[in-house]
Design brief:
Blueprint: E1 8-11, H1 15-26, E2 31-34, H2 42-46, E3 50-51, H3 55-61, E4 64-67, H4 72-79, E5 88-91, H5 97-109, E6 113-120, E7 132-136, H6 139-149, E8 154-157, H7 164-191, H8 197-210, H9 213-224, H10 235-242, H11 244-251, H12 260-274, H13 283-286
Parallel strand pairs: 1-2, 1-4, 2-3, 4-5, 5-6, 7-8
Antiparallel strand pairs: 6-7
Helix pairs in contact: 7-8, 10-12
The structure holds ligand FVH.
């Protein structure tokens, strides 16, 4: 095997792959990089990285191969051109649990070890406090390379099943996009009267913080399936109040399409006789 214990190869030098390679360089590790568009290797070469002429050459350079491409299809496309035997492939490309499990199986068949990961950071956060990455796959493989992973941010190992990192990643992103939906709708409503979103922002931030207990309270109910305890603001009341959101939006010339799915679920759950429960009981309608 070529390379040494502390070297790493990074396939994919988009915004995130470049940040990952940069963090490894900052930590003093020898790094070999490859990108489909070769010009993106230049800034990293300027910092000491070695640019490989092909993905195969890059994979040959290090036992540890970090993959950060656009999506599962691009990962498959690149990996099928290289020899993976004896390598450890760590896929930090965003994907689904099923994609991770299928890729794990294929990579293992090629004679390589595999971990999947989910990056919970934007590129400038890599190597900074607050960044963290989920990993799943064989624990001994995670332990072997943990020091390299820690250069990216916190390393959060979530289990042997390779699909679990993507599951955790997508669950957090679901929460994030749910919050983004609310923020976008709030600002569209405020702007419909020409008011300043910037001036309104502290009110919104404070309100979301005040409501953040919901995260923990809903978790307890989601686990137990009991939505009847400590009911303060019941679902029926909230379904009725929610009605005003699309009506007001229409009056203000604002679309309510971001709100419509939750509105429909609240109405269905209330019609099914669960109006006296907590709003969390909508989860029952999300289960298939
Ligand atoms: N950037 C972010 O905020 C998020 C944070 C959380 C994790 N995501 C995921 O990270 C993956 C990479 O994201 P990125 O930000 O680096 O994305 P781009 O800057 O668009 O770079 C894409 C790279 O993928 C290469 N690529 C695309 N298709 C192919 C292909 N068919 N064959 C080979 N390489 C391909 C592309 O190459 P090039 O266009 O420069 O030649 C870039 O290297 C991603 O899964 C995020 O969801 C980022």
């Amino acid at each position: 095997m070529s390379g040494n214990a502390t070297s790493a190869t990074v396939l994919g030098l988009g915004a995130m792959g470049s940040a990952l390679a940069g963090a490894l360089l900052t930590a003093g590790r020898p790094v070999t990089v490859w990108n489909r568009s070769a010009d993106k290797t230049k800034p990293l070469v300027g910092r000491g990285a070695t640019a490989a002429g092909s993905a195969a050459e890059a994979v040959a350079a290090s036992e540890l191969v970090i993959v950060c491409l656009l999506d599962d299809a691009s990962v498959r496309e690149v990996l099928k051109t290289v020899s993976l035997a004896g390598r450890t492939v760590v896929n930090l490309t965003n994907g689904t649990p099923r994609q991770a499990r299928e890729l794990a199986e294929w990579v293992t068949e090629q004679g390589a070890k595999f971990l999947d990961g989910g990056i919970m950071a934007i590129p400038p956060m890599i190597g900074q406090p607050g960044a963290f990455v989920f990993y799943s796959g064989p624990k001994d493989v995670f332990d072997t390379h943990r020091a390299a992973f820690d250069t990216f941010g916190g390393s959060n190992y979530v289990g042997e099943d390779p699909g679990l990192a993507a599951l955790h990643d997508l669950a957090l992103l679901s929460g994030m996009y749910g919050q983004f939906i609310g923020v976008l709708q709030a600002y569209a409503l405020i702007r419909s009267e020409g008011l300043s979103a910037v001036e309104f922002a502290p009110l919104l931030g404070g309100w979301l913080t005040a409501m953040s207990n919901f995260v923990q309270e809903a978790a307890v109910e989601a686990d137990s399936g009991d939505y009847t305890r400590n009911v303060v603001s019941n679902l029926g009341m909230q379904a009725a109040a929610f009605e005003n959101l699309p009506i007001a939006a229409a009056d203000q010339g604002v679309s309510s399409e971001l709100l419509a799915p939750l509105h429909q679920l609240l109405l269905r759950r209330a019609a099914d006789g669960h109006g006296a429960e907590n709003l969390t009981s909508v989860i029952e309608l999300l289960k298939k």
